[in-house]
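Minutes, project check-in
Item: structure for the 160-residue chain
Input as provided by the requester:
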Amino acid sequence: MTLYQITEEQQRINALLEESGGEITPEIESLITITEANLVNKGESYAKAIFHYKRVEEAIKAEEERLSKIKKTCQNIQANLKERLTGAMLVFEKEALEYDTFKISFRKSTSVEIDEEANIPNEFIKVKTEVDKRGLSDALKAGSKFDGIRLKENKNIQIK
């Protein structure tokens, strides 16, 4: 039986219980036992699958971290080599070096340098606004009321 089928069966049993006024007949008790056993077996299968994919996720995360370190090393090496090459070209007053397969040259660009941030006009300052959900949660737990804001209780499955 699938988890969906087990759930549907349990809902049918719940309806039978309501129809019988809450009395558990031998037939209903047999159905409950079978459904619970199915759920226990299916739950174990689901837990095993969840653990498997958790381990796969952790392995992927470890590999991403390993590759990220390699990427950072490559970026640092490039930056250091470019800095040394730039320095050497400036010392030798070379604007370009040409080879069979590529050309090394300087490209002019501009950037903004700011000596003191206090001198920046207000129209050029961006402010990012974000909600302090932890603060809101604490205030709501302490009894504060806000229109359209409430605490929502969630049920999160936990597998140990």
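Outcome recorded: Residues 18 and 104 are 82 Å apart (CA to CA).
No further action items on this chain.
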